[in-house]
Amino acid sequence: xxATCGAAVGAGGASASGADAAPAGPMQCCRRRxxxxxxxxxxxxxEDLLARGRAVDSKQRHWYDKLxxxxxxxxxxxxxxxxxxxxxxxxxxxxxxxxxxxxxYCLTKLHDHVVTESRQFAIVWVQLNDHRLGLMDxxxxxxxxxxxxxxxxxxxxxxxxxxxxxALRLLLWPIAEDELWDRWHAHERVEFLDSHVDMKKFxxxxxxxxxxKWLDKQAQEATEQAxxxxxxxxxxxxxxGFGGGAMEAEGNKAKEQMDQFKRLLExxxxxxxxxKAIE
Length: 279
What we know:
The protein is α/β, with parallel strands linked by helices and about 280 residues long. About 55% of the residues lie in helices and about 10% in strands. It has helices at about 1-10, 35-55, 60-65, 100-115, 135-145, 150, 165-170, 180-185, 205-230, 240, 245-265, 270-279; strands at about 70-75, 80-85, 120-125, 155-160, 185. The radius of gyration is 20 Å and the shape is globular.
């Protein structure tokens, strides 16, 4: 049984984008390992990710540098900010990206600051309403990181959150401990980072601000259409910036993401009550 478990860990797991192989996670084990064994495997998974990131060729690095970078600005509490904004070369939201390779490359930038120097950091993750990583991928990523990443993380700031992020925050609100909300933040617009970051100094690429404006336009159009149909009190801003065709498209994504969340609940043996709550 132990040999089978070892083979499973080395074989890789489900991908974030179809063809993109993820490191094997704890779910692929046929029996429960000791804490020591899990720590050894986690270190190996982390080293494998670092090696993959360091193997990225120069041309790909040039592009990835536009998708992930250290900001010159720190948070208001002094944590250095690392930005992650997966998107196409012209700011396209629907553009194929090898997310596991990009994450591996991110780790090569983060490693010295977080692991070697044990310094605090914060992440600003611009999702453009699509997180690109499923729940299972995120779980495997957590199991593959050096423990100092969680220890040194001041906060995770998600800008333009996906529907899954919104749903998770809503579901966890009554039961999660305060520590989660102290670190995990969601911002519908870039400007809402101002509680944590000096927005007079902190800047993101131009195309992200253009997406901000597009969301505002969608919300305004949805409100105007609703007002014409139902009267001035018939709408309330298009549900965080989505209206018309955008709402329908995001609704389809939300269903797929909720199905994935249900599968995760089933795996943890909590499907009954919690899965019904989602429905």
